[in-house]
Design a protein that fits this description.
The chain is an alpha/beta fold. It folds into two domains: 200 residues, Medium-chain alcohol dehydrogenases, catalytic domain (Quinone Oxidoreductase, Chain A, domain 1); 140 residues, Rossmann fold (3-Layer(aba) Sandwich), CATH 3.40.50.720. The chain has eleven helices and 18 strands. The strands form three sheets. Strands 3, 5, 6, 9, 10, 17 and 18 form a seven-stranded mixed sheet that branches. Helix 8 links the parallel strand 14 and strand 15. Helix 4 packs across helix 5 and helix 7 packs parallel to helix 8. The longest helix is centred in the C-terminal third of the chain and has 13 residues.
């Protein structure tokens, strides 16, 4: 069938809406009519070439939700009309990592930048003028319709707003889990969150849920600082220098228990600033992405060893999406997880380029594309 989708043909490049041909679902696949898709910075990394796809053209989008319109043959567990949220990381449920409860590290994650199927990275479902088109993370939520593997889909109740729940497919779980799982925030902790966008704002929520006494949000944009204060931050400042001083004032000069780095384009210097802000045996959690070609973090090896500090990477908040997405849905239903205030601006598919301009200008916590 024909569908319209936002595609980038080279990096650096800009998303443009084009007509695409979409194959129907095969075994263990479903076709979904998209309802909403978040505008995540990771899709911009693909467009800018910071984290290049192995194939262009590519249809962007990996944080989305929609309604099943077709189910592949011999595919139990799904039916037409089901509402689903996509997990940008497919979980096979059988590899070493899934078996250990680390579904975010599933071996199928190795294929997400190919844009093919999670179980067959050389197989594609989209074409443009006869040329195969990759799907971001094998999903491609910037398309009106998408054919995806069921390992990337989580069913949810039909009476819930997909335009809000779509954020659970990446940004919410990544930020919340960075605080709760990776930073291991404990009641009474002092936490710094560096960068208040779609990830950082949920790290603030996660730290608040975990019982942190002091949550210091850092962002140069005033409205983002205000939003952080509304969603659990106790302090909001423009620089890491200010945040570090506040953290030390509450910890007898020691520093924060943890610092979570969620800057859109993360550099070694950002990590170093976070490293300087934490106490002995403290933790820096890095969930922001940097350029693929950037190496090196300018930290003191002596301080790393003698102060027993830890620098911890965090992918999708160290979560297990098939378990944690339904859990977060229940928190949202109970009023314990804020989603509504995360959406700053909504866009049509044709306005997606403007959405990323707004992101770069710091105007959004999260922009969301709404489909008709």
């Amino acid at each position: 069938m024909k569908t319209r989708g936002a595609v980038v043909t080279e990096a650096p490049g800009t998303y443009k809406v084009v007509e695409l041909e979409l194959d129907g679902p095969r075994q263990n696949e479903i076709m979904v009519k998209m309802v909403a898709s978040g505008l995540c910075h990771s899709d911009d990394h693909i467009a800018q070439g910071d984290q290049p796809s192995t194939r262009y053209p590519i249809c962007g989008g990996h944080e989305g939700a929609g309604i099943v319109v077709e189910v592949g043959p011999h595919t139990p567990g799904f039916e037409v009309g089901d509402h689903v949220i996509f997990s940008f990381l497919a979980g096979c449920g059988r590899c070493r990592w899934c078996a250990k409860g680390h579904q975010n590290l599933c071996d199928r994650g190795a294929t997400i930048l190919t844009g093919g199927r999670p179980d067959d990275p050389d197989s594609y479902r989209l074409t443009m003028d006869g040329t195969p088109v990759a799907q971001m993370c094998g999903i491609g939520t910037f398309s009106e319709y998408s054919t995806v593997h069921v390992d990337s889909a989580v069913k949810v109740d039909k009476d819930l707003p997909l335009e809000k729940l779509c954020l659970l497919g990446c940004g919410v779980g990544t930020g919340w889990g960075a605080a709760v799982n990776s930073a291991e925030v404990y009641p009474g902790h002092t936490v710094i969150v560096m960068g208040i966008g779609g990830i950082g704002i949920n790290a603030v929520q996660g730290a608040a849920h975990a019982g942190a006494a002091h949550i210091i949000a850092v962002d140069p944009v005033a409205f983002k600082r205000t939003t952080a204060l509304e969603l659990g931050a106790t302090h909001a400042v423009a620089t890491m220098e200010e945040a570090t001083e506040i953290a030390r004032s509450y910890t007898n000069g020691q520093g924060a228990d943890s610092a979570i780095v969620t800057v859109g384009v993360t550099t070694g210097e950002h990590v170093a600033q976070a490293f300087s802000s934490i106490r002995k045996a403290g933790t820096v959690v890095v969930t922001g992405l940097g350029k693929l070609t950037d190496f090196g973090i300018p930290v003191s090896l002596l301080e790393l060893t003698l102060y027993q500090k830890r620098i911890q990477g965090s992918l999708f908040g160290a979560s297990a999406p098939s378990a944690d997405i339904p859990w977060m849905v229940e928190m949202y239903k109970a009023g314990k997880l804020e989603l509504d205030k995360l959406v700053t601006t909504t866009y049509t598919l044709d306005d997606i380029a403007q959405g990323y301009i707004d992101m770069h200008e710091g105007k959004n916590i999260r922009g969301v594309v709404l489909f008709d």
